[in-house]
Amino acid sequence: MNKAVTFSIEIFPPRDAAGWNQFDQTLTRLKKLQPRFCSVTYGAGGSARRGSDIALAHVQRQTSLTPAAHLTCVALSRNETLDIARHWWAEGIRHIVALRGDMAEAGTPFHPHPAGYKYAAELVAALRDLADFEISVGCYPEIHPESHDRLADLFNLKQKLNAGAIRAISQFFFEPEVFLRFRDAAAAIGIHHPLVPGILPILDFNKAAGFARRCGASIPKWLIDRFDGLENESDARGQVAASLAVSMCERLIAEGVQNFHFYTLNRPTLTLAICHALGIQPALERAA
């Protein structure tokens, strides 16, 4: 396996004591693989803002991982948004994943705060002026659900990158060709920044399908068939999920992809298995 292959992870703020235990297990098990950074989600409409702040501080102070803070345009004025960014900078957090974000009520069209940022590109430009943050943005291999068409979606991505972001992390997808076609289309309009595929290990197929419907990711019939009948077979389901993710990543690596972003859902086992299968192993094992 190409030693240049690297990865990052995404986690979400815990809500209770059991969640904190799982959160710590996720960090402990995955930090051995030295991910490039660990992004902490923000919650629709900023609904997990306080929890996100606590989780970020925990990653920053209690682990060797590099935290990346999610920040959205939802429900805050420009001054309030920048105050959050200033606070993170003072805490030593240097990486922000800048997103437009979604409203707290599922399915509600985005409405900017009257005094807030309307688009992620505006947020990126403001953060770039504020401090020397490393800024990532999101992208949609199958088009954002609210975009008019592929070209409009790509030009929006180009605006975010030109505003000062250094990479775009993709929404998850289930077939490598989806990402490769997107990458080709992006290159055709002059996007040459790193596009990092987002990988969602399928812990629960029905839950993953629900996520997909909300973000516009297509679910191929062959994938439905692979998980059919495994509802009560957790071990077999995990083996199928890992095998499919490894196969997809290997195809992407063969096409020149070197960086991946894993949506862990605070469940590290599948991500750990996938990384090992791809040759991403703990530093001590590599040294041996």
From TrEMBL:
Keyword Amino-acid biosynthesis present in the record's keywords: the answer is yes
So which domain of life are we looking at? Answer: Bacteria
Q: What Pfam families does its record include? A: MTHFR
Question: Looking at its record, which EC class is this enzyme?
Answer: oxidoreductase
Report the family membership.
Answer: Belongs to the methylenetetrahydrofolate reductase family.
What GO MF terms are annotated?
methylenetetrahydrofolate reductase [NAD(P)H] activity
Q: In which pathway does it act?
A: Amino-acid biosynthesis; L-methionine biosynthesis via de novo pathway; One-carbon metabolism; tetrahydrofolate interconversion
Q: Which reaction does it catalyse?
A: (6S)-5-methyl-5,6,7,8-tetrahydrofolate + NAD(+) = (6R)-5,10-methylene-5,6,7,8-tetrahydrofolate + NADH + H(+)
EC code(s) of this entry: 1.5.1.54
| SUPFAM superfamilies named in the record | FAD-linked oxidoreductase (SSF51730)
Annotated keywords: Amino-acid biosynthesis, FAD, Flavoprotein, Methionine biosynthesis, NAD, Oxidoreductase
Specify the protein name: Methylenetetrahydrofolate reductase
- So which cofactors does this thing need? FAD
